[in-house]
UniProtKB/TrEMBL annotation:
InterPro entries: 6PGL (IPR039104), Glc/Gal-6P_isomerase (IPR006148), NagB/RpiA_transferase-like (IPR037171)
Source organism (scientific name): Leptospira borgpetersenii str. 200701203
Signal sequence, renumbered to the chain: none
One of the record's GO molecular function terms: isomerase activity
Protein name: Glucosamine-6-phosphate isomerase/6-phosphogluconolactonase domain protein
Record domain Glucosamine/galactosamine-6-phosphate isomerase: where: 6-91
Superkingdom to which the source organism belongs: Bacteria
Pfam families listed in its UniProt record: Glucosamine_iso
Length: 107
């Protein structure tokens, strides 16, 4: 994991220094959860980070299989970030409404 975390640190530092912000896409899964559990220890300016979910399951809000719940418990609850920095996929709304929400995010 340390190689992956080192690369994330290197890229995030570069982007913050040159662009003022760092954007990262999050995913679900056991490997990702291991990374998120360690990512919270990075020395960085978290106010410059913006988090986007690349996938989510269409399950009820707060469901144990929800990727957003996993990331919340393994990363976000430990970071000084606010909701304006986090772009979740509202899978609990169902596939059609999720598509509409994603399309509007980029318009």
């Amino acid at each position: 994991m340390s190689g992956c975390l080192s690369k994330i640190k290197e890229i995030s530092d570069y982007k913050i220094q040159n662009n003022g912000v760092f954007h990262i896409v999050l995913t679900g899964g056991d490997t990702a959860q291991l990374i998120y559990s360690e990512l919270k220890y990075l020395k960085t300016d978290w106010s410059k980070w913006f988090f986007y979910f690349g996938d989510e399951r269409c399950v009820p809000e707060g469901h144990v299989d929800s990727n957003s719940l996993m990331v919340q418990k393994s990363l976000f609850e430990f970071l000084p970030v606010n909701e304006k920095q986090i772009f979740m996929i509202p899978g609990y709304l169902g596939a059609k409404k999720v598509l509409w929400n994603i399309q509007n995010l980029f318009n």
